[in-house]
Amino acid sequence: MLIKLTGGTVYDPMHGINGEVRDIYIQDGRITDPPNDMPIHQVYSLNNKIVMAGAIDIHSHIGGGNVNIARTLLPEDHWANPLPHTELLRAGSGHIIPSTFATGYRYAEMGYTAVFEPAVLPMNARQAHMEMGDIPLIDKGGYALLGNDDYGLRMLAANKDQKAFNDYVAWILRASQCLGIKVVNPGGINAFKFNQRRLHLDEPGPYYGVTPRQILLRLARALHELDVPHPLHVHGCNLGVPGNLETTLSTIEGIAGLPMHLAHIQFHSYGAEGDRKFSSGAAQIAEAVNRNPNITVDVGQILFGQTVTVSSDSMQQYANHLHAYPKKWAFVDIECDAGCGIVPFKYLDKNFVNALQWTIGLEIFLLVDDPWRVFLTTDHPNGAPFVSYPHLIRLLMDRSFRNDMLATIHPDAARASTLGAITREYSLYEIAVMTRAGAAKLLGLSDRGHLGIGAAADITVYTKQEDKEKMFSKPDYVFKDGELIVRNGEIIKVTWGTTHVVRPEFDNSIEKELSNYFDRYLPMKLGNFKIHDEEMIYFGQGHIQVHPCRERNSS
Amino acid sequence: MSALTLILKKTPTQQVDVSPLIPENLTDLSKPEIGAIILVTGNQHVRTDTIFTISGDDPERLIFTGETTKLDYIGKNCSIGQINVQGSCGAYTGMGMKGGQINIYGNTGAFTACEMRGGLVRIEGDGGDFLGAARPGNQIGMMGGMVIVTGNAGARVGDQMRRGTLLIEGNAGNYAGSRMLAGTIAILGKTGNYPGYGMKRGTLLLWHSPNKLGATFNDCGCHTLGFLPLLLESYRSLETRFAFLPKTTGRARRFCGDMASLGRGEILILVP
Ligand SMILES: [Zn+2]
What is the ipTM score, two decimals? Predict the structure, then answer.
């Protein structure tokens, strides 16, 4: 079937197209050349409408143990937000931490076609993939967590050569069916298990004697040498601690020019100045990002209201548990692999710290010059539920709206912030960069995030509107792999997305030693740990797309 | 006017959520309008009149009859009137109830009177597990009102209970009054293992020594407590065996706990 989208105003930053009226043809789920004499089966005339690739969320917690524990911990979120089943849609529930089906529906309704779960514990990866396998409509993928795992730390403590470490990293990527590697509080989660409450960047951790910086460098180098497209995805040390700005700057400087993605940078951009010993470090962080082209960031914007913080960083989550609202929390240690801490939280605009966090996130968005290196996230659900993205986009695109909001927050925080003086307003092109093209490029998804010939036909069409929140919350059409799934913000067809993975080469002889380790220390055999392709394709509901690792010596 | 009677036409294949059928929702409705109310059963939506025969005209007095064990959420959030159930009922009867009265002439399922705030639930039979408790995952159970059980109650009665009174004429299962925050649970019959497990405050009033008591309860000896006759006197007006107890001396053995929690709760075992 051949579909023609005609007369739409196209924003396709990957090809430098900034608001040109163009026709797009879709055939067999892909964008194709204009056909010569083939009959066109369907035409959508898109005058006055804006056409972009489907949006991509590079960091959102949508599957895996922590999300599930958060759901269990917050039944009130699910009682209050039931989603009844219809002819087309499955039942579900939840607003701040929606059930799997609701997650897929809500994302697709906003024009998102791919979402990446940044905290896949290898030990827990099967559960994470099965859960994500139940999320309809969108593509997904995961980043495997390393850096607090006993086996990896043993390797580093024994000063194993980089080649062997690379093989281990590649093996983990393959075994856990992931697209990248993430490190959370390098060494810190492990240190917490030895009753330590803080681990600084250059402080040797307990037992293994490895410093967080060594872990970062080894992992970043491994991914670089394995040519994995997505750079090391880093949740740094000292999350949320006033003054952690220094740690973050030191992390940026200390990665030795290797590519690195800093997640939810907002939580790592705090100074310790002022009466309350809490201030914005956004300007210095943005300046450091601007100066270091090897660094990319996503913001992890907080927005006011009830949410729940889910993180593998059990060390920092434990430090925050006294602020839990409602007063309950859950912590889990996972088989010498990583941690998990769930703390519900309500961000209040009249609270100085929360209000300043809000301004810090926005300042980073607006002070990082290159939209290709800063990404739109709320670190769902940590900063806010993902359904608030349209609101966030309006804050970035509409200065007067932003200043109206600024006037309503805690006055001291508003006064302490430079946000009111920043005049930048994001353009549609820049939004298309940060939510589509840039994300696809950073993740190495060559056929997503753009509208070139051969790309997957993941396309979102909006009506041009002054109110950008309205515009981005209700697309006119969303196509997923060439099929129309959303019309006027409502789902009309349910399809199943792909799981994106990478499979770098490695020397399989490492399995011998790994197997001994599994037999001695872990609750399952190595053979059971590895997730096979057939499991991912669960009754034809899922697919796998393997993305090539970069050609060696190319950029 | 005669009581509004809802007779189940046949045994439903799955549990039916009858929470919309409470007196205050029905007062201004005609019989066809009541019949058109949509209920949820399994994954289906059904009209009330497809499963119930409706007769009578006084919605302040509501009667459920037929195979009522298939009905969940009877009297949910009810605040006025009287509901009578001519038989046993499903789970969550009287959940979140604020006022009025529910009489059950049979047994009830789990979570009866959970998160109740006011009113009276009378069970002429056995109450299930988690009587007067919090819903799963919630932190505060029953917050007011009274439940009278003429038969036995299951495990975890009054779990996380905050206020109000549970009067159990028969036996209670294990962990009675677990995680209690406040309120009163009186049990005339026997009590299972570990009553008051994790209780912070509140009172468990027992007529028999429990099977097993947690090690984190302190024996404070026997006391003559002046308030006990007054407390029992306050039950005189009720339709329950608690109204006809012999005049007590008010003497009781007192255990304080649970010391593993806040420890301000008490288990009083009456000395005959
Ligand atoms: Zn995150």
Answer: 0.77
